[in-house]
Structure prediction request, 464 residues.
Amino acid sequence: MPTPLPAPYFVAASAPAARLVGLDAADLAHEDFVAVFTGNHVPPRSQPLAAVYSGHQFGHWAGQLGDGRAILLGDLDGPEGRMELQLKGAGMTPYSRMGDGRAVLRSSIREFLCSEAMAALGIPTTRALMVTGSNKGVIRETMETAAVVTRMAPSFVRFGSFEHWRYRDKPEELRTLADYVIKTFYPDLAAAPNPYLALLEEVTRRTARMIAHWQSVGFMHGVMNTDNMSILGLTLDYGPFGFMEAFDVDHICNHTDQGGRYSYANQVPVGHWNCYALANALLPLIDDQEAAQAALEVYVDAYGEKFDELLHAKLGLKTTQENDRALADDMFKLMQANHVDFTLFFRRLGDLRVDEPEADAPLRDLFLDRPAFDAWAVEYRARLRQEMSVDAERRLAMHAVNPKYVLRNYLAQVAIEKAQNGDFEEVRRLLAVLERPFDEQPGHEAYAALPPDWASHLEVSCSS
Ligand code: AMP
Ligand code: MG
Prediction:
């Protein structure tokens, strides 16, 4: 059962998330909803539960992990299907280990904003309905205050949920879990000759595609442990995540990840590694090592095809040509050498006009080495002419896939600091901006700006 928090208050709610479960966000500030979504009042038909899982953390087997602070309330039907509602930070569970079962306001706001920002970017993700807070103190590096974020997903089952029963040597529980997941979320696979093998292959494919989406917006998860990998291929467990600013393929967003296991570039092979861990867990059910190995191989093509498709759209290319890979590689090298802001680059690239290089200034200004940019732009323009690209058309298409607004760390930080002083307006304003990441939003240009100097000292870690 959730453990009540003293005097809970409303912080923010997501209107699109509320619609998914037939609720109106305007109602959620009411004290009855605040009580329910803090865990202070358990609705009569709810049967709260915490689900056990284990996992590999930073490449090492870590044994049993959670749910140490997430409690499932139940599910609600909505226009896009059934959603589970889960309270994160609602108190201790049988799996809390050394933890206090709580989450702090800072990390809850980060998870809330990023879940909804990712959804608005069209990236598979768990959702966040609302955040509530309480002035109860929670000890982290410093004293902070408690919060609860209500998360939603069709399921929160993780790769680690399967690993748990595998390493406990409980084949019947493993089968029960796999059968539940197939029957409920992958019903088409039930008819496959080997449904468990089909499950592995489909989850591998979805994981690869999810990571292609991450790479295409410069999103870094920060803690891609197997207990944070969703069996539905959703981005799950937002902690020390980051959006790439100055482009660097080796960027590490998580201060705790000293070896860079989960750096931007490593996300792609680590996603594959995690699917291997899932395959190991499912092997007693699959009962065919060679077939499992073959199923895992879909990762490379699924990733490559999805990333290629997303990259073509980002570059405004409608056709595929032999030299596209080289053009993109040169572009990424140039972005790397010039520390070019990921989001601004693609957004401004959409404004390029094929026959007016003199209008390139805002884009060109992102580069220190202007002649190198000019040389690349000559190639890019040639490529656009090859498919008789029309400026206005391409601009519209590119702006629909290259966001203007992403959750930069400093934006989250500003909103968090205000919230910590009892002012939640900035969280709500930022959420509204991030709900329309592709739209020009007059008056909100500041949210698309480069990070200020003070933000270069910002560090995010696993502490949450
Ligand atoms: P994370 O790195 O946030 O995904 O956390 C790893 C595991 O530790 C999760 O499975 C959580 O259940 C657990 N955990 C993290 N923080 C706490 C906490 N404050 N209390 C209890 N369990 C926690
Ligand atoms: Mg986790």
